């Protein structure tokens, strides 16, 4: 019996040979469990254990819309660089988005350019202020949707801010934000500006 | 679907160039994708080949946790490395199980490990018997070679030894396995009775 034959016989005897793959739910739970125990990022010292099951699966979820219309503001002109403060008064309608605050409804998908490319709104901007759970961003560039010189994001309550794959907005920091249906896309699609994410956005909206 | 991510993963120089200040969300999403695409299923099989389903479950969770915590150390070829982690975690689990069993001191008979639910096809029991007759090290090499289908360099990563050592030992292990199979099959008669193997 040569090596190939031996290997083939062993393969035939593989106890996991005809084992069906684990279901996607099972895999998601495993990942939640593993990453929910994380200790090296964010401020998650307290009360996170009970929450981890939900938090990992951040996605489109319970939605509370703030300040009026969403969609109509999105589909006007294509990509432009925006003027800043001066025009604000003359264009009062802010783009209103919501940062989902619950994880129950779905699960994360990989942030691919293709998936990001389907975002109705995507922009690069800085956080101007955070007050009463509303984050005001000053967009400098729209990749999709807009343009608007002001985007308001209704932020989930403070206790939810450290959602594992959510977005933590901080005043003065620059972000890349994408949204669909008025919901900020989390799970790595939206977040602080960095080269990786900038590349992702550039690739997603290249055409 | 995942091509974009893979590009980032590989093209980004993986771990070495990724600064600690990389956004945590991106890290998480990447690890999740890597685990989903490349780690979970092979690790699950790896464990189900070596232990009972309950232990396999626990060890799989623990292994993923370790991989996530040590995300920065993951080599580009993550799977063999992850097998190595799983081996350690499994060994620890089995050690502590043995300890518990000693403590429990035969109050009740210990449940025999359940077989992997795999009654689909006829198994080559001869080769399994032969494998069981080999030393642990030989058997593990052969399992990694035939079941995980790893090459010597990958096996070397799993076992933390050199590829050369793997090649040599693998050669010997194969020869021994061949011998054992020959003995069983050549020995004829009683050894081959398969009716006696009821889980």
Range of strand content of chain B: under 5%
Radius of gyration based on Cα positions of chain B: 20 Å
Structural class of chain B: mainly alpha
Quaternary structure: heterodimer
Head-to-tail CA distance between termini of chain B: 42 Å
The greatest interface between two protein chains, and residues involved on each side, is: A-B, 50 and 57 residues
Any overview of this molecule?
The complex is a heterodimer of chains A (about 210) and B (about 200). Chain A is elongated. Chain A has about 210 residues and is an alpha+beta fold. In chain A, strands 1, 2, 3, 4, 5, 6 and 7 form a 7-stranded mixed beta sheet that branches. In chain A, a hairpin with a 2-residue loop joins strand 2 and strand 3 (about 135-145). Chain A is about 20% helix and about 20% strand. Chain B has about 200 residues and is mostly helical. Chain B folds into 2 domains: about 20-110, Rna Polymerase Sigma Factor, Chain: A, CATH 1.10.1740; about 125-200, Winged helix-like DNA-binding domain superfamily/Winged helix DNA-binding domain (Arc Repressor Mutant, subunit A). Chain B contains 9 helices and no strands. Chain B has helices spanning about 5-10, 15, 25-50, 55-70, 80-105, 125-135, 135-145, 150-160, 165-185. In chain B, helix 3 (about 25-50) packs antiparallel against helix 4 (about 55-70). The longest helix of chain B has 27 residues, at about 80-105. The model of chain B is unreliable at about 1-20, about 105-120 and about 190-199 (pLDDT under 50).
